[in-house]
Structures are given as C-alpha cells and as structure tokens.
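Comment thread on ticket #2218

A.B. wrote:
> Attaching the input chain for the structure job we discussed in standup.
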Amino acid sequence: MSQNPVFIPGPTNMPDAIRKACDMATLDHRSSAFADIFGPAVAGVKQVLKTTKAEIVIFPASGTGGWEAAISNTLSPGDKVLAARHGMFSHRWIDLCQRHGLDVQIIEAPWGAGCPVDQYLQVLTADKTHEIKAVLATHNETATGVRSDIAGIRKAIDAAGHPALFLVDGVSSIGSMDFRMDEWGVDVAVTGSQKGFMLPAGLAIVGVSPKALAASASATLHRTFFDFRDMLKSYASGGYPYTPAVGLLNGLKLATDMLLDEGLDAVFARHHRIAEGVRRAVFAWGMRPCAQSPDLYSDTVTAILTPEGFNATDIVTHAADRYDVAFGVGLGEVAGKVFRIGHLGAMTDVMALSGIATAEMAMADLGLPVQLGSGVAAAQDYYRHGTGAAALAAE
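C.D. wrote:
> Ran it. Output below, let me know if you need it in another format.
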C-alpha cells in the first residue's frame, strides 16, 4: 500500500532519488570516497545559503543541535543576547540560551506577529555600552506560519552601529524561501536536513561567518560535540572528528544538486505558488491564517485559525485516523486554536490539492461549516490562473 503525502512542516516528503541516495553500503568515512561525498555537499549548501564567505559545519544532529552550536561557539556564560519571542520555536531557542546561563533580553510579541524590527532598533540603539553580544531571530516561525524580516533586522543592527553577532534560525525556511547569508550579514545561520533539503532528520547544517569564527576563539561556553574548531580542523583533511552520518550526507549532496538544478529562484517561486493556493483555500473556508498580515505569510507552512470554541487538534487527529494524512497541530499559545498545513520541500500543486481536499473532508466530518470543494476550487483556480499575492491581499 502506498503512503499518502505528509502535510506537516517537517520532516517533509522525500523524493525517491534522495531516499535511495541515503540508502548506501557502509564506507570508510576517513577515505577519499567520503571526501567525494562531503566536499560537494558543503559546496552545495554554500550556494543555497547564498554565501561565499561562510564556513559550513554539518553536525549529526537536528536543528536544535544547530541552535546549541550557534551559541556555544560564539558566547560566554553571562553574556547578554537579544531575542524576540513570538512563537514556539523562538521560545525554545530562548529557553536553550537561558539553560546555558546566558542573560536573554526578551522582546515579547504576539503569536502571529513577526520579529518587531522597530523594537530591535530601539533596544540596540539604547545599548550604548554594547552589552548585547548577539542578536537572535527566527526567520520562519513554524508554529504560527510567520516569516520575519531578516534583512530589516540587519538594517536595525547597522543603524544602531552595534557590533553584536547576528544569529538566525532558518530551519524551516532555508532551501524553500530566499535566504541571503552574506547580503543580510548573518553571522550564524542554522538549518536542518528534514525541511527544505527533503531529507530525514539527522543533520544540523550551520553557516558560520568569519566574524563568528573569530568570536569562537574567545567564547567560553562549554562545547565538545558541537565545537566548530574541532570540526573545521578535521574538515581540512576531508574528515570528521567523530563518525559522520554518511548516508544523510550523500543524500544532502543530491538534494543540493536537485535544488540548484531546479534553480533557487524557481524553488522559491514554487513554494510561493503552492502556499498562495493553500491560503486561497483557507479564505474560501471562511477562515484566515494565524499570521497577522500578508507580508508575514510563510511560504512553507500555514497555521489556520479555526472558529472560537472548536478544538483544532481534532482536525489533525481525525485526518490521521480516518484518512491516514498528517497535518500539524497547534503548539504553545495556539494549541487547539490552529492546525497547520506544511507545504515545503518535495511538494507540488497536485500534492497540495490532495491535502486541501483531505482537510475539507476532516472539517466537514467534524461539523464545521465548510463546503466540500470550496477550498479545492479556490486553489485550483489560483494554480491555473494565479494572479499573485496582491489579489489575495485585496480580498
């Protein structure tokens, strides 16, 4: 029996070619055969991150491991960092920082809002003695379907004349939405294998700027497994300081080839088109995204607010039990208030239509006033004759 596509915001659906690339015989990870896999994978990641300056460090871990590597290699106990909390994943990174003994200055923002650039500017401008050592931002808040303005935060840091490092969580954006590490002055960019790279979970992929590498020389937070210096020293001879995830790295090599062969602009346009179709379906159902305004809409996941008093988690549970299709539940402050449709990675218009149709059936089964076919028709019309975000925003 074949498996239905998943519509969670990661892990994502895997192309068969990538799955087969990960399924390989054991090889000596200290041999030239491994170097032939690893070198091209790193080079491909650099192109996806749009960097010529950064080092790429790939740990056998998840995106959370990438968060830990970002701070433990660049900061010292008691250092002050600035971060916005506006969703579950920005919250979890803040929690990780606090557990490491960092002093986190938190900008609280509503769940459904993006990183408040104006407040970043205000705080950084007021920090005349430059006590803040790092600025953290979540590019794509997976819990709420919100994309933040990373370029805008970089401009705020520059306008304040502040020397802080800029650390960005791009776990659910990189490889699916435009990310410009060099242009945006990102010092550490964190992502994972299981999202836009269409792989299983298991690789924390970290871009590290020269400024961040320089900071690692004096940072005193403890790290061993996640030490950039140990990794890069071993990389010089084509290896790892410990055992790498060879099969996943072979898959990453192919994944970057596939993204670059499609063309990054085409990849981003595909994600935007699919996301717009999903959002049109949401409006046709008489609902709206959790994201507060169209400029915040994520192109990788849409969190959908359900009517007041209805438990949105029931949609996810029913879709899984009745139709064997996976959607994402609401997390944290929006638990029970939203369900999430992930539309990233190996996703097509036709796959998205099947997810929209299943969501409609689940909602109708549960008694919500959703007309079967309404969201599907709205998405079909967009996929056939899409007129862009301006028309959607005007509705």
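A.B. wrote:
> Thanks. Noting for the ticket: The longest strand covers residues 132-138.
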